[in-house]
Amino acid sequence: MANPRGSDVCNGSLHNHKEQRDNLKTENCTKNGIVQEIQQNEESQCHYKPLVESFEEAPLHVMVFTYMGYGVGTLFGYFRDFLRSSGIEKCNAAVEREEQKNFVPLYQNFENFYTRNLYMRIRDNWNRPICSAPGAQFDVLERVSDDYNWTFRFTGRVIKDVINMGSYNFLGLASEYDESMRTVKEVLEEYGTGVASTRQEMGTLDKHKELEDLVAKFLNVEAAMVFGMGFATNSMNIPALVGKGCLILSDELNHASLVLGARLSGATIRVFKHNNMQNLEKLLRDAIVYGQPRIRRAWRKILILVEGIYSMEGSIVNLPQIVALKKKYKAYLYMDEAHSIGAVGPTGRGVVEFFGMDPRDVDVLMGTFTKSFGSSGGYIAGRKDLVDYLRVHSHSAVYATSMSPPVAEQIIRSMKFIMGLDGTTQGLQRVQQLAKNTRYFRQRLNKMGFIIYGNEESPVVPLLLYMPAKVAAFARHLLNRKIAVVVVGFPATPLAEARTRFCVSAAHTQEMLDKVLEALDEMGELLQLKYSRKKNSACPELYDETNFELND
Amino acid sequence: MDFRHVKNYLSWLYYQYQIISCCAVLEPWEQSMFNTILLTIFAMVVYTAYVFIPIHVRLAWEFFSKICGYHSTISS
């Protein structure tokens, strides 16, 4: 729960910040040589580049067949459940003991219906064990199942040099040991592996201080704090920032860590439609006009939770408009850049740089080191008083073990590599190579006629498959051709929109991408996946402004 | 030669049917059961069409010709 005094401090300090900003309004802030104009409230005149995002709808017959396929699966599910419960067939799922049959049921049979009857049949496409570093190519353990995926056994063979299109390895830094990781080895020799304490007791090392200063410099903010785990960064710090009597406006497609953090905080949560600024503005206006639900007092704080790149859709947040809204209605903005830090922007500094905006506009910048830095952990960055407050009040700082020193050193070395502080320009070249690979991959997939979601600059590429049997066939066929992909179905996505998600990496060479594209072309022909009806034109979808509800 | 093309095309078509109707993820005995039921229903539909559609068409023709014939007797 948030400390009430702490929230007043936060609120008061933001007021001071705003006064300083108003004094600075007449000067131009230059950052990286780009002159920025501070826009206050005219969202229609923002200096953003047009977002080319497409979420094309599938033809009608595809949806009909998808639901039909699920219907057949459900019918057979009922049939098999009947066979299992009447004892004709052996039940492999968990059941209660004979002596407890008349007690309150322990296993809710119907909730697991989908898992037992549909997921089990195609379960071999998930949780595949690998046995090498997740670079551009890796080794996969071969496994077979004798009883239709209820149990697996390993044959002992290893499938070598499988092209990796599933790992979050945007800049190719998650690879085996090479000479540039020498400092990690030295830190391992000097500090060992475990810290054996939490941050507030005896777990703050000089490595953490060095890392936090480096993160603050990388993001061009005042201060930063790092945590051991990315998921825990969100779920443990949102409760420290907001509490009861505050309002959280969170995007419809936010990650589970943000949702968990919001629920743990005890604040009121309202959801706005994905990336829909009119909906967000309507919710903000309603919140300010009507206040808290029954007592009608003003909300103590309004926090907007968004992500930089949404991992299932590949869409990029509409940051200029959100910042304009937040300034107009005096709300706070928390942005989770897990997938976008290191991956978008001209020098890899995330969505804030992608739009050319000032990082001081976003109140809380959060990110993880798992995706682009080849390590693990998360950070929260922003103004110094915010970070100092979190050092004292965050649950993660009090209870969770701090980051391990070799892991911290890997992040330090990756960040220096990207920023160019190690003396070479290889980091910048990798960021540019990632952008080039992304554009090439997306353009070729669009030309082939697949339905791709998301922004054309996002390295996360979801390709829609729709039918459950195609999902299974797709993953299996591609593994036979030594390409590993991640397929996603219900419940991570809506029921009828199963997809496969590619993560383009800077470590993919042109030959690897061509090999993957060729295999996808053949898969598209074999499984009839090319549903797109706008084959060769990349026309940007205009935003639907017809439900603009402001009436003043 | 042509026979092989036709066989490839038919097996591709059967694979598409399996993929779309979720048969590809069912166990073999479930697939046979599903195919049998579907073929039975299809056969029943064909048989019913063969037996009853001519009779229905003839009755409809008589009904409409009687109405037109009634009109023509009124008008004359």
UniProtKB/TrEMBL annotation, chain A:
GO molecular function list: pyridoxal phosphate binding; serine C-palmitoyltransferase activity
Enzyme class: transferase
Region (Disordered): 1-23
Keyword list, A-Z: Acyltransferase, Endoplasmic reticulum, Lipid metabolism, Membrane, Pyridoxal phosphate, Sphingolipid metabolism, Transferase, Transmembrane, Transmembrane helix
Topological relation to the membrane, as annotated: Single-pass membrane protein
EC number: 2.3.1.50
Protein name: serine C-palmitoyltransferase
UniProtKB/TrEMBL annotation, chain B:
GO MF terms, alphabetically ordered: serine C-palmitoyltransferase activity
Biological processes per GO annotation: ceramide biosynthetic process; endoplasmic reticulum organization; sphingosine biosynthetic process
Membrane spanning residue stretches: 37-57
Gene label: SPTSSB
Localization per Swiss-Prot or TrEMBL: Endoplasmic reticulum membrane
Sorted UniProt keywords: Endoplasmic reticulum, Lipid metabolism, Membrane, Sphingolipid metabolism, Transmembrane, Transmembrane helix
Protein name (record): Serine palmitoyltransferase small subunit B
Organism lineage string: Eukaryota, Metazoa, Chordata, Craniata, Vertebrata
Record's keyword annotation contains Lipid metabolism: yes
InterPro entries reported in the protein's UniProt record: Ser_palmitoyltrfase_ssu-like
Predominant place of localization: endoplasmic reticulum
Matches recorded under Pfam families: SPT_ssu-like
Record has Lipid metabolism as a keyword: yes
Membrane topology: Multi-pass membrane protein
